[in-house]
Structures are given as C-alpha cells and as structure tokens.
Design goal:
The chain has 8 helices and 7 strands, in the order E-H-E-E-H-E-H-E-H-E-H-H-H-H-E. Helix content is 42%, strand content 15%. The chain is α/β, with parallel strands linked by helices.
C-alpha cells in the first residue's frame, strides 16, 4: 500500500536510536523528508532524505528549535512524531521516588512532546492540517508495580493530552493519535543500564534471569517475544498517513499480547 507520504515533511524527536531511528528510516523509506532530532546524531548521518539536527529536546526551547529547522529547510510540517522519552527504573518504590525524579520524567516524556506539538500545530494550521503521532507506553494505563511510577504518570499525561488535541484540532484537519508499545527490543530494556541490568543488580541475579522474571511478573507475552522497533515504526507510519486521516484520538497498543484486558 502506498501511504502517500512521498514529499511530506516529518519531524521526529528522539530519532537517533531504538524506536526513533526505526521511525526515521521507515518514514524516509516511504518518501518523506525527515527532520530528525536527538542529542547525538551520528547514527543519522548519511541517511537519504534525512536532516539530522543535534538538539537537547529536554531544554525548554529545544523542541521549537527542531520544528523551526524543518520550517527553515522545507517551509512546512506535515507530520510530527513525538518519540523522545526515557525511563529510569525506581527500585525503591513510590516513597523512594523524589519530586525531582518525577519532574525529570515529565520533562523528557511529556513536556518535550507538549512543546514540539505547540510549535508544529502552529505550522500545520497555516497549511491546512497534518498528523501527530505520540509514542506513549502501556505504562500509561498499566502499572504492575512502582518501578516505572513516574514514567507511567508522564505517559498517561501524554495520552490524555493527545485525546484533547484530537478533539480541538480535528476540525482543522489535524489528526492526533498515540502508539503504546509494551517492552521493545531496544537498549531501554536490553542494553547497558537498561531494565534487565537494573533489576539484576538490585536482586542479585544475572540479566537474562531478571528479564525473564520481570516479563513473567507482568503477565508474559502471548507471542513469546519482545516487539521490534520496526514493528512500532510501521504502525507509526500508517497513522502518519493521510490514508488514516479520520482516525484520531485513538491509542494503538503493540505489546505482543501483554495486556490481557481492554
């Protein structure tokens, strides 16, 4: 299927690795002109149809700088993918998670998207519409323990914001949706200082055992495996397309069957 993204201008945040890098490659592969922002951009250098922008998206002016670069290079923004985010496992639970740690989670996972959206919507209104896809998480509504309590709260705020924006800007031709992955085969889960290693260090087991224990503890996957970044990117690209322009205010879960209830 042709997603009709050829020549569309897409801004992607947190684009240098994992899900963000997969989204950048997928959109570019569909013909979009991608303005890809991240603190480090080495992995983006040389990608066809991709403009790599080194930027601190946690800084108050960072998201607007990235959108501004897209406008400078291409004169418009057709698609915004708010992917930047981070999680730090809170092994000491709620009482061991400070206000500062909650603020950190909100800056990375909510305010960066809020600020990028404000800048992009302003541009989209001038050109008659566009698509916004926010990468949320199953943790926005599924919390088996306090390990991701601040991250989940921030992603829940992003999910709620998305639904509000869909209502306000739907009549203006802007459709806004979320994609909520479960555990994905990225550094966040499997890399150095990722979830598996953090749990392993806290519980005195190896990383493979920790990963299996965590997955079993939250219910396990129906598919028996982690989601891949490319699978998430495919879903994002579909929602970025005008072929799905009447899909708005929705949240698509991609978690290998982790969530067992609706």
């Amino acid at each position: 299927m042709d997603l009709a993204l050829d020549g569309k201008v897409a801004v992607v945040t947190g684009a240098s690795k994992g899900i963000g890098l997969a989204i950048t490659r997928t959109l570019a592969g569909e013909g979009a002109l991608v303005v890809a922002g991240a603190r480090g951009t080495d992995t983006l250098d040389g990608l066809e149809r991709v403009t790599a922008v080194p930027v601190d998206l946690a800084a108050p002016d960072g998201p607007a700088q990235l959108v501004g670069r897209a406008l400078q290079e291409h004169g418009r923004v057709d698609v915004l993918v708010n992917n930047v985010g981070a999680v730090r496992l809170r092994v000491d639970g709620f009482l061991g998670t400070s206000d500062e740690e909650f603020e950190w989670a909100m800056r990375l996972n909510f305010f960066s998207a809020l600020r990028a959206t404000r800048a992009a919507v302003t541009a989209m209104l001038e050109t008659g519409g566009g698509a916004i896809v926010n990468v949320a998480s199953v943790n926005a509504f599924f919390q088996p323990d306090a390990g991701t309590i601040d991250y989940g709260a921030a992603k829940a705020a992003l999910l709620n914001l998305s639904k509000s924006l869909a209502q306000e800007f739907g009549p203006k031709g802007i459709h806004v949706n979320c994609v909520s992955p479960g555990p994905v085969a990225t550094e966040l889960w499997l890399g150095e200082h990722g979830v598996a290693e953090t749990v392993a260090a806290a519980t005195g087991v190896d990383a493979d055992t920790a990963r299996a224990t965590v997955i079993a503890g939250i219910g396990g996957f129906a598919t028996g495996r982690f989601t891949t970044p490319d699978e998430v990117a495919t879903l994002v690209a579909i929602l970025a397309s005008q072929r799905t322009a009447n899909v708005t205010g929705a949240n698509y879960v991609i978690d290998g069957g982790l969530i067992k209830t609706t």
